[in-house]
Design brief:
By secondary structure, the protein is α+β, with helices and mostly antiparallel strands. Helices cover 37% and strands 20% of the residues. The mean pLDDT is 87. It binds zinc ion (ZN).
């Protein structure tokens, strides 16, 4: 699958609203049969377009408190390390590397005052002069949070090859390797990745194939 037609977009829009919409309801809505709805949805999953079906909880019913936003200006050379160091914090909801004056944006889940103190301490404990500037604010109310709005004209999917990291929109070759589904632009890329994965498992290669591929990319 490398293109989304109008029917695909219709199915996906409905699932974005409610991922529990039944095959029968989707079939009625699109004038397709239930088996062909099933086939289409399986294709979205196999191609990696649908990453997972999940739920949205009202976090306020579980956690008392408010979430926070942190904008950080971090030494670019330390960015990766800092992101890794604080990534494990259970408070982080979203971490984004940004362009502009600040280069790291963190949004947290709702936190109690005690948790806020703990989290701020953790950020302040980042060693050395890695963090050059830090601005934080308490999020008062999430005004709205809505899913992506899909276009209503057919679109081509953009997929990044797990081996060569090239963005492509043709036929997809996929296989579950090292714990998750990987996508390749060609059988050759798949073969090379599998080869690396095998060596990694055997201990002949010390770097995870994902990191190997990234290294190769920066060399170019
Ligand atoms: Zn490739």
């Amino acid at each position: 699958m490398h293109k989304l037609d109008k029917t695909d977009l219709r199915i996906l829009s409905t699932l974005l609203e409610d991922s529990r919409t039944s095959y029968a309801a989707l079939a009625r809505e699109t004038n397709l049969t239930i088996p062909s709805i099933k086939t289409r949805i399986q294709k979205y999953i196999d191609s990696g377009l649908i990453e997972k079906f999940t739920i949205i909880l009202d976090t306020q019913m579980i956690m008392r408190g408010t979430s926070m936003t942190f904008l950080m200006k971090v030494k670019p050379s330390d960015l990766d390390q800092i992101a890794k160091d604080i990534y494990d914090s259970p408070f982080i909801a979203n971490m984004t590397i940004t362009s502009g004056h600040y280069n790291l944006l963190i949004v947290t889940h709702p936190m109690s005052d005690k948790d806020k103190l703990e989290f701020i301490k953790k950020i302040n404990s980042i060693p050395g002069d890695s963090v050059m500037e830090l601005a934080s604010s308490i999020n008062l109310e999430t005004f709205m949070c809505k899913p992506i709005e899909l276009p209503n004209t057919p679109i081509n999917l953009l997929i990044r090859c797990d081996y060569c990291h090239r963005e492509f929109s043709g036929e997809i070759f996929s296989k579950a390797i090292l714990g998750r589904k990987r996508y390749f632009c060609s059988p050759l890329c798949q073969e090379k990745y599998e080869d690396r994965a095998e060596k990694y498992i055997k201990g002949e290669l010390f770097t995870h194939p994902d990191k190997e591929a990234k290294k190769a990319e920066t060399k170019d």
